[in-house]
Batch of 2 targets.
Target 1
Amino acid sequence: MSITQIPFTLKFLIVIIITFSISLVLTPIMTFVSKAIGAVDNPNARRVNKKPMPTAGGVPIFIAFVFTTLVLLPVIVHSQPLVGSSGGKTGVLHLQSYLNYILPFVIGGAIIVITGLIDDIKELSPKMKLLGQIIAASFVWFFTHARFDNLKIPFGGPMLTFPAWLSFIFSVFWIVAITNAINLIDGLDGLCSGVSVISLLTMGLVSYFFLPSPNIFLPITIFTLVAAILGFFPYNYHPAIIFLGDTGALFLGFMISVISLQGLKNATAVAVVTPLLILGVPLTDTIMAMIRRKLNRQKITSADKRHLHHRLLALGFTHRGAVLVIYGIAGIFAFISIILQVSNRIGGILLLVACLFGLEIFIELVGILGENRQPMLKFLRFIGNSGYRDAVIHHGNYDEKTDSDNDEEDTIEIERPLITNDNLDNVESKQHLSRVEKDKK
C-alpha cells in the first residue's frame, strides 16, 4: 500500500504520534542544555520553586511543532481554498498549500521564541520583550490573513469594516494581550501548559465543527501544537524538572492568539466572545491584576503575589490541588464556550450573564482584588441580611459595619463561669491549690 492509499485520518494520527515523541525525547535533553546556557530560574520571593530550575522548556515544543508543520504535514495535507477566496465570476478558486499557510506563523513564533530565550538567559526589560512581541505580531498581520478586519454589531446591527491602520492596531493588541495573559499564569508546575492544552483542544473543536470556513488547516495546526505540548507536559507537571520559561509561555500565548484571531474573519459577537471565554482563566487573571495594581496605585508591570494560583496556595491548597482547581475552571470556561455555539440569542446572553456573575463571586471569595474588595458579596449580604441592611441604612458606614459584622459572625462564643466578688476568693483559693499540686508533682 502506497502512502497515497492510506486514509488521511491514519496519516494524521501517525504525524501526531511523531510530534508527541519528538517533544517527549527532546525535553529531558533540554534540561541539560538550559543549565549549560544559563537559562535557569532561581528562587525568589515571588517564585514557588525552592531550588534553581532549568527553563526554556518551550524549545522542544517549538522544535517538534516546526518539524511537523514544515516537513511532515505539507506531505499529507492537500492545498485548500485561500481564506476569503470564493472564485468570483470566473469560478476559479485560489488554492493555498499548507506550507505557504503555516510558514509566516512559524517565523512569527521563531521571533517570539528568540525573545523568550534571551529573556530566560539574560532577563530582558519589559520594553524589549514587548518590542519582540510587537514585531512578531506585525509580521503575522502583514503576511497572513489572521486579522481583526471587521465586527458585526449584535442584535441586528451593521457590519463594521475597519480600515487597514485600525485593523493593524486591533490585531497587534489582540496578539500581544493574549500572549502576555498566557505568560502571566505560568506560576505553578504544569499550569500554563495544562491550561493551554484545554484552551487549544476547545479551539480545535470549535474551528472544526462551528467555523463557517471549510478550511482544514486551522484544526490540524491546533492539534499538532497540542501534541507537542503533551510531549513536554510529563516533565512539567508537579513535581516539575523543567519550566516552560518565557520561551515556552510566550510561544504558547502567541500561537493561541494567532489561532484565535483566525476565527474572527467576518466576526460576529459570538465569534469574538468565544476565544475570550476559552481563554477565561488567563484573561481574567490578567485583567484583575491590572485593576488590583491600579487600585493599589502600583505600576501595571509591578509584580505581586495575588494572582489566582497565589491566592489558592494562600487558602491552603496544595501545589497540585491549586493546579487541578484551575484546570477545572478552564474546563468550565471551555464547556460554556461550546454551549454558546448552539445557543440562541437570548440563551447566549443569559449564559454570559450567569458566567460573569459566577466569576465575580469567585473572584471576591478568593480575594484576587485584595482585602475588603467584595462589592457583589456586600450587595448580596445587604439583600439577604436584614440586620446588616438596617445598620447600613441607619449608619451609612458600609465598610466599617461590614467588618464589624464579619467579626461578630466569625467569633465563637464560649460560656465561661461568671466571677463575682462573692466567689472571687473561692476561685483564687482553687487556683492556689492547683499551683501547689503542680509543685508537688
Target 2
Amino acid sequence: MVWDLLETLGNLLDVVNLFSSNSSSRGLHYNDKPAKKKKSKYYTEKVSGCFIAAAGILLFFVFKDPLPAENYTQTLLVSSLIGTAVSGLLFFLLYVLNLYYFKNFFKLLLFSGSVILFFISLVGCVYFRSGLFV
C-alpha cells in the first residue's frame, strides 16, 4: 500500500517535470557528453607558427652580437641540451594532461620542432644576455 503511494507520487512528479518550463534536466542522460568548444581548423599550425616566430626573435637577440669565443661550441651544446630537456618536460606534462595528440605525423613534427626550437632559443637568450652564466 505504501509502495503504491510512493510509486504514484513518483509518476506524478515525472509528469510535472515533463510539463515544467525548466529544461535544465531535460536531454541530459548518463551517456551524454557535454558539448566541447569547437577548436579552430588550423590551431596546431597557428601555435607552432607563434613558437617559431618567437624563437626567431630570440635567436636574433642572441646572435646579433658576436658570442664569447671561449668554449663556444660547448656553450651552444649545453644550452641546446637544456632547451631540449625543458621541452621534453613540457611534452610529458602535455601527455599526462591528454593534450599531446595529433591527427597526423606532420602536425606532431611541426609542433615538437617549434617547441624545441623555442626553448633552445629561450635558454640561449637567457644564457648569453643575462650575464649570469658568462
